[in-house]
Amino acid sequence: MHRVGKGELSARIxxxxxxxxxxxxAQHLDWLLEQVQERDRQLRSWNDALxxxxxxxxxxxxxxxxxxxxxxxxxxxxxxxxxxxxxTAGVAxxxxxxxxxxxxxxxxxxxxxxxxxxxxxTELALIDRQVSRIEVIVGKLLKFAxxxxxxxxxxxxxxxxxxxxxxxxxxxxxxRGGVEVHCTFEEVPPVRADxxxxxxxxxxxxxxxxxxxxxxxxxxxxxxxxxxxxxAGVALSVSDSGPGVPDDLLGSLFDPFFTTKPGxxxxxxxxxxxxxxQRAGGIIxxxxxxxxxxxxxxxxPQTPEDGDDP
Length: 310
Prior knowledge:
This protein has 2 domains: 150 residues; 148 residues, Histidine kinase-like ATPase, C-terminal domain (Heat Shock Protein 90), CATH 3.30.565.10. Helices cover 55% and strands 16% of the residues. The protein is built from 7 helices and 7 strands; from the N terminus they run αααβααββαββαββ.
């Protein structure tokens, strides 16, 4: 009894030769100790199972909370895109009229002055370039405001050859920058999307990655099957070895007109990319890699077996 009181539940009296009351008490006590030890074993087992369930539920709640926050951010972004889209559509159309007038008058100046326009040829050429820049920005604004107007019909596309074609398109930038490209392409099912839009997104991500490295670096592209919220799909990851994105700016990268390259970009590339991917039922995310650099991941749902829209 003293040993049991100290916590040694396995202690037993054992066989007692006596057949009197002491022997009966000894046997009964050993039987009670067996019951106590079994109850203790069950309680410990239940406790372990309860802790496992608590840990599992905690992990599930954490994951659900992350999804909720991500959904909230997407809803906020959708509202921003809707509001800004209405404004930019009107602004873009209004800008086209004075731009056309400027271009027409510059041509009239050249024709009127003839050879006398030579002293201001540099200035006139500068006007041409800036007007062309305005046209490019207006085109991006229109595509950002109403991407469906510029979209072809969706169809089943294979991402592997599409990504390879995109690398060919930007090969001059990659070669000029001395960037080393590493591709890991697994066999993946087709996705249902507009090939031109997906190509635009991939080219934009690759160009951004090359520019972020500002010279020699490593560009990694990984294509594989990936499931998201129980939906089968395909994920394309574009990673660079650049400095990465400051943590306080990660949440603003997809905001319209936000740019980390003031004076160089319009800040619409990633916003348009996000809009195009969301229209196809996918999602685009960004994170900083532990080894350095940023990684953008485009996820698209795979084409259903029956061929219907996902």
